[in-house]
Amino acid sequence: MGGLSWGELFVVGVVALIVVGPKDLPVLFRNVGRFMGKARGMAREFSRAMNDAADDSGVRDVARTFKSATNPVGAAMDGVKEAAKSMTSLDPDSETGKLSKERAEARRKIEASAARAQAERKAREAQEAADRAETLERELAQSAQDKAESGAESGAESGAATPPKGEA
């Protein structure tokens, strides 16, 4: 990390805490982070511009030739990688390209069919749950009605057996 050890970073943090204060320390670190991000972006842009300039001047071709002369095994591996890359890119008009299209279409059909079946299963399960809830609600209402009727009957029976309070 830029040649700083953990101990040195700790000392820098303590000094920053003392100098800046705990209140403004997060703002300081945020600004330092933004500055570092901008500096990295500028370095990346500079590096990209230098690589583009090297490509334009043909330095990369010379470097590739030099590498192949000094490292024939590495150059052979690069050739194998390029050949593999050309083999994996499909020409849409070739037989392999046509088969690839057919397989992709079959995969989409299978996915659509599976999604449809899942939707139908979920709809069926939702209907079954709604029917079950309706049945339970009916049973609950019937139970409450039976309880109310039995309470009214027992109230009528007990009311006939005991005389009213004023008459006793």
Helix/strand layout:
Elements: H1 6-20, H2 25-57, H3 59-70, H4 72-88, H5 95-161
Helix pairs in contact: 3-4
Task: Kindly describe this structure.
The protein has 168 residues and is an all-alpha fold. The chain has a domain at 8-70. It contains five helices and no strands. It has helices spanning 6-20, 25-57, 59-70, 72-88, 95-161. Helix 3 packs across helix 4. The longest helix is centred in the C-terminal third of the chain and has 67 residues, at 95-161. The termini are far apart. The model has no long low-confidence stretch (mean pLDDT 82).
Largest sheet: none
N→C terminal distance: 101 Å
The total strand number stands at 0
- If you compute it from the alpha carbons, what radius of gyration comes out, rounded to the nearest whole angstrom? 41 Å
Treating each run of at least 4 consecutive H or I residues as one helix, how many helices? Answer: 5
**Strand/helix succession:** HHHHH
Low-confidence stretches: none
**Share of helix among residues?**
over 70%
Brief write-up:
This protein is mostly helical and 168 residues long. It has a domain at 8-70. It contains five helices and no strands.
Name the features:
about 170 residues; 5 helices
